[in-house]
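Retro notes
What went well: the complex prediction finally ran end to end.
Inputs used:
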Amino acid sequence: MRIGIIGGSGYTGVELLRLLSPRRDIEIVFISSRAQAGNRVDSLFPSLRGHVDLSFSDPDDVKDAQCDLVFFATPNGTAMYQAPALLEKGTKIVDLSADFRLQDISVWEQWYGMEHHCPSLVAEAAYGLPEIHRATIRDAQLVANPGCYPTTVQLGFLPLLEAGIVNTDSLIADAKSGITGAGRGASVANLLAEAGDSFKAYGVAGHRHLPEIEQGLKGMTEADVNLTFTPHLLPIIRGIHSTLYAQLLEDADLQALFEERFKNEPFVDVLPAGSHPETRSVRGTNVCRLAVHRPQGRNTAVVLAVEDNLVKGAAGQAVQNMNLMLGMPETEGLLQPALMP
Amino acid sequence: MRIGIIGGSGYTGVELLRLLSPRRDIEIVFISSRAQAGNRVDSLFPSLRGHVDLSFSDPDDVKDAQCDLVFFATPNGTAMYQAPALLEKGTKIVDLSADFRLQDISVWEQWYGMEHHCPSLVAEAAYGLPEIHRATIRDAQLVANPGCYPTTVQLGFLPLLEAGIVNTDSLIADAKSGITGAGRGASVANLLAEAGDSFKAYGVAGHRHLPEIEQGLKGMTEADVNLTFTPHLLPIIRGIHSTLYAQLLEDADLQALFEERFKNEPFVDVLPAGSHPETRSVRGTNVCRLAVHRPQGRNTAVVLAVEDNLVKGAAGQAVQNMNLMLGMPETEGLLQPALMP
Amino acid sequence: MRIGIIGGSGYTGVELLRLLSPRRDIEIVFISSRAQAGNRVDSLFPSLRGHVDLSFSDPDDVKDAQCDLVFFATPNGTAMYQAPALLEKGTKIVDLSADFRLQDISVWEQWYGMEHHCPSLVAEAAYGLPEIHRATIRDAQLVANPGCYPTTVQLGFLPLLEAGIVNTDSLIADAKSGITGAGRGASVANLLAEAGDSFKAYGVAGHRHLPEIEQGLKGMTEADVNLTFTPHLLPIIRGIHSTLYAQLLEDADLQALFEERFKNEPFVDVLPAGSHPETRSVRGTNVCRLAVHRPQGRNTAVVLAVEDNLVKGAAGQAVQNMNLMLGMPETEGLLQPALMP
Amino acid sequence: MRIGIIGGSGYTGVELLRLLSPRRDIEIVFISSRAQAGNRVDSLFPSLRGHVDLSFSDPDDVKDAQCDLVFFATPNGTAMYQAPALLEKGTKIVDLSADFRLQDISVWEQWYGMEHHCPSLVAEAAYGLPEIHRATIRDAQLVANPGCYPTTVQLGFLPLLEAGIVNTDSLIADAKSGITGAGRGASVANLLAEAGDSFKAYGVAGHRHLPEIEQGLKGMTEADVNLTFTPHLLPIIRGIHSTLYAQLLEDADLQALFEERFKNEPFVDVLPAGSHPETRSVRGTNVCRLAVHRPQGRNTAVVLAVEDNLVKGAAGQAVQNMNLMLGMPETEGLLQPALMP
């Protein structure tokens, strides 16, 4: 299969290459970057020396490249311009940006601060969370790869909302992300000297992943959904830990509920009762690891969910979606153990 | 004033010395440690070279030392044996351990797994959170210095509970602590190789600070209090960030409420509306810095509270209490700016 | 091929499992640990959930297990007792400890502070640095896997010493290691609270890797060798960076010299002139990445050498040696790209 | 005394404020920053809330401010334009940039890539390393504050070169700096995601501190000086560790030599024989801590030198110089213990 990567000089770009370059069943036809055009990929990312023998292409030079599937690892607002032409010629798309994630165009435009260029495609796009939308993804031409936070929060709440045993009007997601979630752009706030050996919340007043998560949660229940979502910045490279709180409406065996819901999922791992997942236990892998607690036997369920924000939260899930869309085994190229310690 | 420190080879011990050694109004008469007896303090803690010209004493050798005030920086279960004799001879005590924090002896015995040796002193002890109990502390012979988490959680919820505007039956404290909170004991879990570049929750099923916090919160309100408290381990040296959630029962100007409550407090700093305090902004200082939010204008109040767990969360608050108990200015020796970056 | 791992509860143990578990050409017959006997491996190392379906064995219970090759991931002084019986029954051995590294028994006994139990095997053991001893390793029954520091220092000096163009009497190796080099034992010095956000040298008066390195360097030259070796502790998880200094005796094209020496080596990567390798560029891989400089065109050659201390510095090199000893492709299972960022 | 700070939005600016704001003997008249003009200082640096009640001034607005002394915390190439007018009106200057550090103008112009605007002042400027130039500094109108690396390297080599017991033709300084040494500018290379959990050398071919150090070393000896200087980037916030190597020409009691040389120096601390200073032991303080070794009793002296690059390596030394220039006690405001852990 012939694969292209548009916008490959960021962290999701290098991560796609890390996951795809060892595979013999696909060929990376191009990786583009306007800023890095002409430079060797392994000059920017020495970790890929010996693995990727490509230079970055100018985006304009690869418009006619024939690919079976193209990944967009571009900033928000790019894929919506280029997707139509690619779909037209039969190229499938996995978009790692947010362009096709929100079904309500006006909500998207409000949170992303721009006009949507092709609202018509939004309705056609599958939301790329295979644990919920696997069948749709298989048949999709265009997949909107979920955000990093939304993956953990949706997977963590899923069994509770499907079972209808929690009050969906006061859900809380206290989420913490490693710094790669902020991307590879130069910024004072993300310097090691600023973000190292420290911790803070950010975007408490409102974060773009809130509407994406609420949209997903609403799909799991008949009830109204009201989520308080608080993102925080961790001084670690990779990893998201979402701590989820829900008020129980009735008694239930939460451990059994979670194990049952995910028993056939290759990339969701429910830990034994009483466990606390560490972000490092999924470093470099496509696994979302969960634990569920009911502290003091009271009425609050607490779910702990970890993932590698660059893998299950971005590039790994994108490859999982690619595998589904191209009829390959879903787990192909995604089964290596985590790098721990 | 003559000061003694019992159990000084841990992090609260070295921190007490950092804060006290520059002062001319007090004399450190001894610092004891059974394990380090005979060793120079600045051999164990080279940061104190030139500042502390003492060796660790054997605890048995300092029983007759005359002090105005003694700090216990010992493990739980030690101060309760030694406090009576000291009080007897008129020595005041600030206990940084948990021995005198819980008024309900049976609850204490359940959470700390031992029999309490002198329940009668518990009732006499003042709980050393000056922002709430200042007058009592001034007159106390024995002060139970609060835990690190409880300080942020109580200060953060205080204005909301005193005002009676939140549902106290579903309070949530999602708290994150730097690794010094785990103490200086050798342990695999706290190795840099284990806790570095990672993040996890711990003690979700139950943590000793839960009853301490709930006792404090109950003192602020007539209503029942039900708190879900989730501690997490941050890969940073110093700092606690508590993210607090409460459901609002009525509308209120939260920013004004917080500013008003703490306007005369030298060590509580309410940030401007919309702010996000960083743990590093209080590194090395006795300040608890707060921000209050009401995301999306919905019904959930979100309070962000940071402190240095070794200062306002331990040794600094202990010195603040000492200042009050000895009739010194409350802020003496505690006003240096934070070390940032 | 049937493989056993003796002493598997440390970092080299879990790293061997990370590298070996995905392979279909070998079977891990047992992994032993006296302390963890009976516990599931993936309970201690959750990163291996779904990858390793084994419990730790008691070492005494696996003495009769039939294996083609056994790894010793034990503390120094263990393999020398157990190796003879294994070799007797035809089992090959890769020893990751130091028991068979030093040919001079008296030097070994001086640095390791114990009597050597089987000096006779030392002479038979191959020193497992394939870039120098590949042929010997292929035929060996017993391979002494090199230390982490010695791998980088020997590879970095190799072209200079073989070419005979430096003064070998004043070599300097300023080496820096991530904290996993200190192992998984509980210790105050390696706590995140102690070693984090700080840096120091250690063992300047003498480190056990000095005689190992000097033995290796002496094998590269006719001249006397005198090395000053200064190890330092980095606040990172994985990675060694050795900065090597040698006084040039004559002019030479250092870049060409290095590229030529390693052009056929799959796991040594010489960077372009002017480069500075980062430890993260080899995180999780078996590559040693080198750069050579001649600052200001003066007479000092400066070599920069990085490796992952747990991979090329330990478990990865052990697997490379296993591949050679068992007649498998040398790079089998060792070609995944580094985890970067 | 009236003090001004020009260019105060970087790390040396905030550090000057941390050190100066608690003092009652000086008044900070202004702090300027073109980019931050009009913004409150404690808005940019919340750690200074309650300590600094100033807004950043536009540099053009403070040209007529009357000050006893002005600090330049500006990028290189700024102070040389503004110094003449200030000196003209009797204002003393401590320049934390490199404008007046190198006596050889052509060397300066080569390394800094610009024409020097006022070479005449260079000869008048004192080099602000009090341990060597104290008397000159006391009388100077203009002090060139040393670079961060040069302070440790010069102090560490000083006793050896003054005693004339080492070969000055093959000196080596292997230096490692925390990330604040790179300043507060936005840059990809210094992101936590790039520089965290990793380590590398940089500028091996040539670094601007090389000529500064060599100039200083030449002042200590009659012999020729040839230094190989290799800077590295540490994933820590503050701290420099320089590991220095020199070949001994004769036998000597190195420990006694170092202790004797620095016995009256308030900010140089020679550790007992066999010690290894940690960078954290000087975090936040103006101390340079040294240890000297002679590994294996061979001919190489190894000096370990640590400092806080923002204090003794920048703002602290600048305050030390200010104290000398204004006739205040040299240690005023600089004696607080380090923040450790």
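What we learned: The mean pLDDT of chain B is 97.
What to try next: split runs per interface for comparison.
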